[in-house]
Amino acid sequence: MGYELVIGLETHVELSTESKLFCSCGGHSSANEPNDCVCPACSGMPGMLPVVNRHAIELAVKAGLMLNCKINQYTTFDKKSYYYPDLPAAYQTTQWFHPICVEGLVDVEVAGETRQIGIKQIHVEEDAGKLVHTNDSSLVDYNRTSVPLIEIVTKPDFRSSAEVISYLKALKSKLQFAGISECEEGAMRCDINISVRPEGSEVLGVRTEIKNMSSLTSIEEAINKEAIRHIDAIERRTEILVQETRRWDDVKKRTFPMRNKETAADYRYFPDPNVMPVVIDDEWLAEIKADMPATVSEQIEKYMSLGLSEKEANAAAAEANLSAILDGVIAKGIEAKTAAGWLLTDGLGILKKNNIQPKDLVLDTDKFAWIINAANKGEITRNAGKTVLTAVILENVDPESYCKENNLTAQNDIELVKSVVAKAIENNPKAIEDYKAGKEKAILAVFGAAMRELRGTASPDLINKLLKEMIS
Known about the structure:
Blueprint: E1 3-14, H1 54-66, E2 70-71, E3 74-75, E4 78-81, E5 91-94, E6 101-110, E7 113-126, E8 130-133, E9 138-141, E10 148-154, H2 161-177, E11 188-198, E12 208-213, H3 216-235, E13 244-249, E14 254-260, H4 264-267, E15 270-271, E16 278-279, H5 282-290, H6 296-305, H7 310-317, H8 320-331, H9 336-353, H10 365-376, H11 382-395, H12 399-405, H13 414-427, H14 429-436, H15 443-454, H16 460-471
Parallel strand pairs: 12-13
Antiparallel strand pairs: 1-10, 1-11, 2-6, 3-16, 4-5, 4-15, 6-7, 7-10, 8-9, 11-12, 13-14
């Protein structure tokens, strides 16, 4: 008998705000010590009423628009009651009765085929704190308490782990590109609801939830292993499946039970009387829509229309920071294909060598444009341009002054270049002998010696031409 996977996702995404959801405390990333960013409001103390973070609402609406959701212009906050040490008020403020976004739809592509995944809702809620376990005790850090999240809840429309991974990659790219979330480790966490049923059946199987997954590799492994567990339970009676919450063990490569799965009644949802409803009027909604950036797909389409290959366009649009730099250089009159070559080949190569993430790249587009223009005009060689670009990225130097101070301007003195090439030939007799004997690659040693002596300021084509002429 064949079986079909049925998967739904609940993805918790930390919003890129400067303060928490209901108070002015900075986010946990700004904290230097445990419990550094805490006040009476976010630590569950009485006497201080919450005030909704306007920017968090705007980011949630943007996420909904990107996922083709209907925006609820009247939205409320509710109490979700449960006790856990890192939840100081013994309830979480979330949205149950009137979530901010509903009825969305996104496409996922796997092996050239596209399927539509329904978005049930997006709601805004506060994060919990963090438990730090030691050998003999557990400590609580409330810095993360009340940091604003959105929870994106899909319908059970996924049928494979590949579809889930495709969706999460696309979601991460969209949210990062729009500045809604950085989606870094811990800032994007996923709960996987999974069940198995016979192919052709419309009846859902017993559902289990795998909590707090963040690594795409682990998510794919967990889905595939949990599917095998369910099928074994059905066919071989290895165990009785129950509705429960489980955790993934990355070392043992299997899930383990945590607790029976709660129902909505267990959480005793009721409206939070301390938080006023949020009304998003037409004017405010229009302002949010006007502030929406181009989507990733729109950027890819634009770059391809400017002459970039599909691979180049996807690479540039995959990271919002790279896209902004590329757009800035193109706006200064640099041809798009040329600019993309410098950024995606030389720029990313420099970042990789120096362990810098593309999102952290700081590159003045005026300085970048000067380097490209100077190379195009022959004022510096491409090799020298890469050296200058490295200095601009790492030290933010002035490229023109740097070239003059370090003698990186293009070498136009033919006699000087000839003398350097002659010296390289004289100093590498074995390479010359091998080259004349038919080992063409042997000339590279002589070429490299001349390039080093000239510090990349002479055209490689000129050096190569002179080498071959002088040897023959």
